[in-house]
């Protein structure tokens, strides 16, 4: 019953975020909250609107402030849209400036954390049950590594796994980021779909990666770990491993329903003999289990000859059984740490592997972050330099495979990597270079 003039007067004292929230109350408030007079005032406080008039026979220009024409000649909501677009463009410019410097070892932006903070980026998972109802879980814990970020969600009120159909991972950014204050939980924001996972028959369709006394861990590609209470079909926690390569783009530039598509690579002219195959590749490898890092290293000048192509894969040998000078120890007791609001634990022989493979020009060629596990091998050791059990770690996705062979040394209580080989899909290589291996 309050007159619209009085409501407009009240709305004129609101900031942009509050005004957008008020517009969600009902259609009447939405119409009033689109008022050009209010939004022009907000716009002018940040971006002074000017109109430029060019004079004949003069290089000088005259800037004229937009007056009544700015209000009456525009459709309702025009200045609201202009303000939002300008703010988003300003944030993107700030983020792009931060991600421009590149680390020569990883080939990735140096200031990922600063860029994420500038954009106000966070992540959520949305669980959808078979009736179409959505359950939103916000992030509970986050940790940063050299090339990835790990996010852990836990709650006392997970919906029953039996009724769930899908899990969606979203990047969430405030519509109007403000560097001077933390993003409002209930403020206007937008979602960018990163990945979608199907939870039907989870234990049969996913990869089991280990267990302790309390939980069982299952991996869904790409990079998602679901922890179930042991002996029960109930979720204990969900962990996502996100590689920095294209992380900001996937978390910001996608829509709420469609994932961001990576732009195609533009191959450079290569005058190396084509029989030589891949050459001058660099690998940055990080193995960690939460707060602990077990291995972090860079391997340069990797190559693959034509003869190393077999069964649809190109082989890149990083560590060879034959060269014991390059065998690598893992530091610490390998295990993946987890926690909920009540319990904590550590699953032995399970960890997160971050792979960053750069091509000969230094561009990220194949990148992933995924939970993996070590499995006791049935074959006997043929290594004369080591006496201990052989363990293997294998990872595979649509673009390639990683095979790691380790030896457990009982005397020193440590693992040694004695064999590390990357297999790159010929389809991936052909798409990247426009070739036909």
TrEMBL record:
<dbReference type="Pfam" id="PF12937">
    <property type="entry name" value="F-box-like"/>
</dbReference>
<keyword id="KW-0732">Signal</keyword>
<dbReference type="GO" id="GO:0019005">
    <property type="term" value="C:SCF ubiquitin ligase complex"/>
</dbReference>
<dbReference type="InterPro" id="IPR001810">
    <property type="entry name" value="F-box_dom"/>
</dbReference>
<feature type="domain" description="F-box">
    <location>
        <begin position="1"/>
        <end position="42"/>
    </location>
</feature>
<dbReference type="InterPro" id="IPR036047">
    <property type="entry name" value="F-box-like_dom_sf"/>
</dbReference>
<feature type="signal peptide">
    <location>
        <begin position="1"/>
        <end position="16"/>
    </location>
</feature>
<protein>
    <submittedName>
        <fullName>FBX15 protein</fullName>
    </submittedName>
</protein>
